[in-house]
Structure formats: structure tokens, C-alpha cells
Amino acid sequence: QVQLVESGGGLVQAGGSLRLSCAASGTIFSINTMTWYRQAPGKQRELVARITSVGSTNYADSVKGRFTISRDNAKSTVYLQMNSLKPEDTAVYYCNADVRLSPVRITNYWGQGTQVTVSS
Q: N vs C: which end of the chain shows fewer Cβ within 10 Å?
């Protein structure tokens, strides 16, 4: 069984910063792509940032230049550094990971989400 646990969410004023973390635990052979999504009230879940196992990244246009995704493979953890936050960044942020449970088996997992609220 694998769990993804997010942390670091909270309330911040516009222009402020937050750093989200997502730690994977359980029986893990390795982790491929790790992704942050977010879902605002009344909106569909959207991709925020993605990082591959070798460190290649891509970002939603709305966060480019403000957010940075990184990972620590030794800790099975992915981070999202969020700077210059805007009220429209308010959402529940979810971690997603493609976890290799064995050399031949990969399963996708979601975290439970962490709330980020940006006040104007």
C-alpha cells in the first residue's frame, strides 16, 4: 500500500509564498512522474506542474515564472514552491504520482489534498 501525504497549505496574503510538500510512503520500487494538480470551487481539476524521474518539468501557463516544482528521490518527496501568489491560486492542491511497485507494475496514486487560500 502506498500513501501520498501533502502538507504546507494554508492562508497567505496576495504576493506571499507557500511551499507544498508531498511525501510518498509504503512499498515503493521507484517513482516516475510526480504531478501537482489543483481544484478551485466550481472548477475542474487542472494540472499545475509536473516533474519526471529525471527532473524534466512543465508548468501550466498560469503559474510559469511563479511556481517551481522539485523532487527529492531519496525521500520520495515532491515540492511545489509557490511565489507571488494571487487570489486566483486559491484551491485544493493535490499530489499525484506514478509509483513503480515492482519492475513490471506501475500504479497511479493521489494524495488527499491540501487547501491553499490567498487573500486579496
A: N
Cell numbers representing residue 117 in the block: 487560500
**Among 17, 10, 31, 29, CA closest to 78:** 31
Q: Counting Cβ atoms within 10 Å, is residue 56 exposed (0-12), middle (13-18) or buried (19+)?
A: exposed
Using alpha carbons only, give the angle 117, 119, 120 rounded to the nearest 5 degrees. 150
Q: Report d(CA 13, CA 29) in Å as an integer.
A: 40
CA quadruple 33, 50, 6, 21: dihedral sign? positive
pLDDT in tens, 106-116: 999 999 999 99
pLDDT of residue 1: 87
